[in-house]
Task: structure prediction
Amino acid sequence: MQIHFIEGYIQQIYLVEYPDRLLLLDGCTRADVDVVCDYIRNQLSRSLSDLKLIVVTHMHPDHAGGAHILRARTGAKIATANIDGHWYSGIDGILMHWSDIFLALWVAGRKNKARKNLWYDRKLQADYYLSDKEFLPEFSQWQVLHTPGHTDRDLSLYNQTTQQLYVADLFVKVKGQCIPPYPVFYPNRYRNSLQRIKEIKPTHIILAHQGELPFNEIDFTRLEQLAPTVPVTHWRSIKAKTKKALGLNN
Result:
């Protein structure tokens, strides 16, 4: 097994290679579809049909945005968390979907990336809905762990052979320090997820945006101290700024 680290539009892409099949650890952005396909064809000299499974760890644009298109091009299956309903449900979900796409474009701008079309279906149509502690179909080395907090359906993927753990956006590294992501919708679940990862003690942790880190370099005590105690979301931020602008904080 070899994990290929590919630079994506606003995140790292992790393509796992086996002699007879390929696994994509997350669904990328729509802008990454050609990047993944070109890498499979030109760097690995393999057929697109070798991509057998795409995991969507949660529904944000840089994790789910390319999944449906990649499935259509390659024939791969999509796996995600077995959580009821859709993340972007209802009117609030539509607005949040738009705002997450705009946020992804803002991040791209900060990285000096050209503006690209990031639109994707807000309702994921997966082939497999996986419960906590299940193993990935066709990739039995990889165990699915439910690690919610950032959203209600976050997945981490643990390779029991290599003891590498992909945690997606459970935390991010900024200026050399690991910090909680934005947003955190479920702070209590988030703290429980941190504790779970801490207890597993993998050799390395793979982040969606900053690559791979040795487990012993991560300051979980600091992460727990920085973890919010109330939800930190788009809507709360907008509401707080609006109240401040209107002088309604007192």
About this structure: The longest helix spans residues 90-110. Residues 59 and 87 are 7 Å apart (CA to CA). The radius of gyration is 18 Å. DSSP finds seven helices and 14 strands in the chain.
